[in-house]
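Translate structure to sequence.
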């Protein structure tokens, strides 16, 4: 509350200084699965705007009973207010029908998090369109996706992977959570609804940690510029992101605490070889510099040598003898992205200098040859019968005297061994 009051005061202050505004984050659940996920996490996340986007009007009405979630119905002309089944083309067409309205959904936002349960028609078909609209509005866009269970069939999995491929060029970062990984946390006999709630709880905790890092101040503060530096990527570069929040006892030691932070069983990849990593440590007043230094050092071992590392530190009374770590790593899991999803990073830059080096020597070799040949043709002509080189101007003498002189010159132009042979004869 203190921070909000400070922001309001500075907005009303007419001193001419630049006003401070609060960062705006909107979480959008696309399709039936995406809507269900945000319905489950919206109660736990404060200061965040929520929107559920769907072609199915009835499903949307059920989700938006929570006042915190804004409903966004799209594609009424295409679907008549119904779902799309597994027709991805229909989901895409419905989203394109409302493209300008989708752009307005993102207006004024700083970060947009698109949550989609992939494999169906609406979410998978509309995702690339929503991602494109967000990019056009200049918003930092982070996609959080779940993949279907293996028992749902290969067709749904292929639909999900294709949606990620088509949307990823428009997204700054993506997190992929295969539903199948839930069996590493719950028994296979666990009811489906309860199993899915575990995924929702994990997502809620992770996103809550990220939002807390964005909004709350600390001893060493992480601001929006830091979040943007880790999430933002150049066009065409796809960043797989790992987001996790854990709580642990300080007695466990830095190495064990970090191990928990970097190895969430719901992920098929970890933070190894990440290019950018941001982590926020929250502890009690008794947390020491030695503890923080040991945790930071252990986390840095998982990154590349040139990785961006951003650290934040907060203190709260409720974390006495405990510690909370929020970790966001990007550029990791490239092997998983290549093999499982089929997205490979383009490597065109190193090839350009190689092509230039091959072309240059070819040009240099041709030029001197042309000059030598042309000069010979213009200045001299060769007589192979007499083994002599005769100047062109002396080919046609006009008088007898000139002929005799030429005969003497030809005699001395012959090589020495030929002159000796003629003399002997």
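Result:
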């Amino acid at each position: 509350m203190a921070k909000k009051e400070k922001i309001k005061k500075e907005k009303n202050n007419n001193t001419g200084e630049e006003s401070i505004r609060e960062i705006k984050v909107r979480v959008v659940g696309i399709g039936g699965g995406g809507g269900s996920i945000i319905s489950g996490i919206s109660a736990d996340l404060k200061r965040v705007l929520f929107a559920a986007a769907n072609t199915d009007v009835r499903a949307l009405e059920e989700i938006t009973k929570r006042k915190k979630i804004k409903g966004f119905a799209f594609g009424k002309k295409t679907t008549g207010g119904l779902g799309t089944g597994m027709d991805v083309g229909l989901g895409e067409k419905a989203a394109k029908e409302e493209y300008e309205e989708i752009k307005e959904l993102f207006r004024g936002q700083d970060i947009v998090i698109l949550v989609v349960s992939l494999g169906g028609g609406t979410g998978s078909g509309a995702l690339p369109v929503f991602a494109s609209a967000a990019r056009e509005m200049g918003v930092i866009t982070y996609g959080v996706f779940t993949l279907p269970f293996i028992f749902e069939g290969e067709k749904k999995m292929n639909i999900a992977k294709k949606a990620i491929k088509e949307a990823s060029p428009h997204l700054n970062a993506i997190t992929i959570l295969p539903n199948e990984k839930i069996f590493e946390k719950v028994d296979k006999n666990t009811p489906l609804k309860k199993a899915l709630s575990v995924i929702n709880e994990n997502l809620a905790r992770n996103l809550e940690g990220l939002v807390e890092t964005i909004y709350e101040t600390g001893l060493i503060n992480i601001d929006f510029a830091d979040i943007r530096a880790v999430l933002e990527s150049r066009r065409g570069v796809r960043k797989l992101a790992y987001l996790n929040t854990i709580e642990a006892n300080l007695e466990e030691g830095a190495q064990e605490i970090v191990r928990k932070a970097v190895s969430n069983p719901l992920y098929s990849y970890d933070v190894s070889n990440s290019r950018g990593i941001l982590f926020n440590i929250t502890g009690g007043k008794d947390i020491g510099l030695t503890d923080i230094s040991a945790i930071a050092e252990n986390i840095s071992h998982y990154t590349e040598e040139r990785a961006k590392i951003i650290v934040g530190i907060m203190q709260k009374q409720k974390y006495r003898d405990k510690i909370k770590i929020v970790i966001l790593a990007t550029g990791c899991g490239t092997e998983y992205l290549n093999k499982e999803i089929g997205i490979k990073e383009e490597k065109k830059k190193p090839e350009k200098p190689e092509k230039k080096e091959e072309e240059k020597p070819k040009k240099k070799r041709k030029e001197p040859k042309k000059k030598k040949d042309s000069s010979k043709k213009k200045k001299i002509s060769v007589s192979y019968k007499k083994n002599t080189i005769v100047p062109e101007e002396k080919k046609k003498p006009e008088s007898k005297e000139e002929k005799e002189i030429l005969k003497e010159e030809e005699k001395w132009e012959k090589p020495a061994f030929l002159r000796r042979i003629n003399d002997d004869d």
